[in-house]
Structures are given as C-alpha cells and as structure tokens.
Amino acid sequence: MILVTGATGSVGGEVVDRLLEQGEKVRVLTRNPEGARRWAGAVDVVTGDLSDPGALGPALDRVDRAFLLLVLPGVRQAGPIMDAVRDAGVEHAVLLSSIRAGSAQDSALKQVNLAAEAAVRESGLGWTVLRGGTFMSNTLPWAASVRTERVVRAFGGGFRSSAVDPRDVGAVAARVLADPIPHRSRTHTLTGGEVVTITEQVAVLGDLLGEPVTFEELPEAVTRAAMVEQLHYPPALADSMVTMLRNGDESLPRVDGAVAEILGRPPRSFREWAADHIEVFR
Ligand SMILES: NC(=O)c1ccc[n+]([C@@H]2O[C@H](COP(=O)([O-])OP(=O)(O)OC[C@H]3O[C@@H](n4cnc5c(N)ncnc54)[C@H](OP(=O)(O)O)[C@@H]3O)[C@@H](O)[C@H]2O)c1
Q1: Which of 65, 70, 132, 134 has CB 3.0 to 4.6 Å from 78, enough for a Cys bridge?
Q2: In a domain, 146, yes or no
Q3: Low-confidence ranges of the chain (pLDDT < 50)
Q4: pTM of this prediction?
C-alpha cells in the first residue's frame, strides 16, 4: 500500500493517477475527503492532518511506501512525522522538496526544505528526495483577472525560472514509488526544459487566448502583505519569496535532465501546460 499526501493538490493528484495506472494500491491522506471524491472506490481515503503527527496511525496502517509533503503551512516540524512513518514500518519515503534547497542563496524557504530533507534522510528509511522547480501551476491565481480584464497583476515580471509542470513532478514520483530501489538515497532536481520569465508566461496565455494579456507590476509591499494575510505564509517565508522574485536566484533558471531521464520523454513546456488549462483563463 502506498500513502500519498497532498493528493488533492497539483502534484499529488498526478501521483495517485499514475500509481493507479500502474496497478498499485493507494491510500490518500487529506483534511477534506470531499476533495478525493474523484477516486471513490479506487483508493482508500483517510482523513488526517500532517500538523498532528500523533494521529497518523490509521493513515499509515499497512503502508510500505509513502509520498510526503512536509513543507506546508501549519506543519511546523518534519521530525515527528518521520518518527510516525518509521514506527509504522514504512520502507521507502519519497519527499517533495524544492529546488531552493540547493540554492547558494540562504533563505527561510531554503532552510525549511533542508530541514524536511534532513528529517527524511535521517529517518532510517529508504528515501528519495525530489526537488521541484517553480511549478507552472503557480500561475493559476492569475485566472480571475485574466478572465475578466485580460491582465495579470504580479510582482517580479522579469523573474526567470525553469518552471516545471507539476504533472511531470507527479509522474516522476509515481515512477520512483513503483520502483524505489534505483532511486534509493538519491536527490533528483525536477525542472522544465526551458527558462521562462513571468512576462513570457503571460504572453503565452495571450497567444493561446488569441487576445493580448497585459502585465502590471505590483509593488513588492503589496505582494508580501498578500502572502502573509491571504496565503498565511509565515513572515520570514514571505520575505524569502519576495526577495527571490526581486533579485532572482541563480539556481532557478538551471535546466536539469532528471525528468527526461526518468520519464523517457522531454518535460512538458509552459505552452503545453497552459494549453491544457486554458479554459480556466478564458
Ligand atoms: N509551488 C511551487 O512552485 C513549489 C515548488 C517546489 C516544491 N513545492 C512544494 O510542493 C508542495 C505542494 O505545493 P503547492 O503549492 O503546489 O500545493 P497544492 O497543490 O496547493 O497542494 C497542497 C496539498 O497539501 C495538502 N495539505 C496542506 N496542508 C496539509 C496538512 N496540514 N495536512 C495534510 N495535508 C495538507 C493539501 O491537502 P488537503 O487540503 O486535501 O488536506 C493539498 O493536497 C509543497 O510542499 C511545496 O513546498 C512547491
């Protein structure tokens, strides 16, 4: 049995779909079982919260492999979660971390991902760390203003990253979970195949919609306040996000070959991701 956390999110949903295709038995952990309704009858659904590691027993019962998100709002420490995972007899854990963990620039986001990685590596389990690049799905919050005004208001239009389709990250995780041995004690960095700026992503949306979409740069302070007040980021994390958007990070525009190597095909481009989600923006 494979436990998938974050199954209702952009990466975890793909992990579940690919594992079911491969004939694996899957259990998902969610705070809101309604969000897992699309797999009714096909997966075990357990209600639980990673911020309460002491209550993870039912989710971990008879689980031998686990896909773990440990860097989440409200989840303060990865160590107690990994203790529960080890004590339940899980053999292999696949952690979704961030490319920022490998950055030369220090930041709260780097430190929180490094702490999660350390908890997994030191757990005594077999482990694989997947360091995801910037997700293409981070553009979804633009949908409302694109639909109504054909405008994107954001901070850091020139920010460059080798953005990755979260479905590619999920597909890699499913491959690793289905056959962990070749990936044991390995850290893979998962990026897209090209470097894009935020304004280039906006232009691709306009192109696919057949109408120009304009970009309006928001002030840094407004962006930081929205992260803290609306997205409930701890202030230090919000600081590291806006600093990254302002100054860039040399580790983020790096294109890595791991997605292509593991999946045997090139990573999806932003144009492909956007074409598959264009109705949300129309
Ligand atoms: N966004 C990026 O660019 C990026 C890049 C690299 C790595 N990451 C990492 O990828 C992960 C997902 O990020 P995302 O922004 O794309 O998220 P997302 O798609 O919005 O999904 C978040 C998922 O986490 C689950 N979750 C949240 N809090 C939880 C809790 N306390 N207990 C159990 N489950 C909880 C949610 O499940 P329920 O609501 O169903 O409980 C949901 O399925 C994060 O760990 C993030 O650090 C993100």
Answers
A1: 70
A2: no
A3: none
A4: 0.96
